[in-house]
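REVIEWER CHECKLIST
Item 1: Sequence provided? yes
Item 2: Single chain? yes
Item 3: Sequence as submitted:
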Amino acid sequence: MASMSGMSNSFHFGVGDTLWTTPLTPTSGQGYAGTIILLILMALFLRFLTALKAMAEKRWNPKSAPIRCTDDDADNYLEMQPAQDYEIRPGSGSRWNATIQFTRAIFQVMTMTIGYLLMLAVMTFNLGYLLAILSGGLLGELALGWI
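Item 4: Structure as written out by the authors:
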């Protein structure tokens, strides 16, 4: 079986790992730092998209808000009831809306694309790339996790 040149099968730091295309191969410390910054920003943007989609879903479907328990209910969680009882009638659900569905689809495609590109970066086994993506996820969660 022929070995694949340029592919490392162990984690490492350093320049020379191709990120998606040959022009994105850092050959200096400055290029490597730029690549790290790009990956951090992409991971932040992925977390931003996730938070933005969650906010949009709340706006599009306000009836599906999570049930919260009060301090009195916390001890007896088996007896919790929904905050409001809704009468469910056939056809009373939300109607299909082309604008909302198209927006959901765009969010999904963008999230999948960025996630796939980040996965490919991790598959280079470059620890700098991996730590940059994890740092971006951490910073994104700290900044946007409350939304």
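Item 5: Key structural point noted by reviewer: DSSP finds four helices and no strands in the chain.
Item 6: Recommendation: ____
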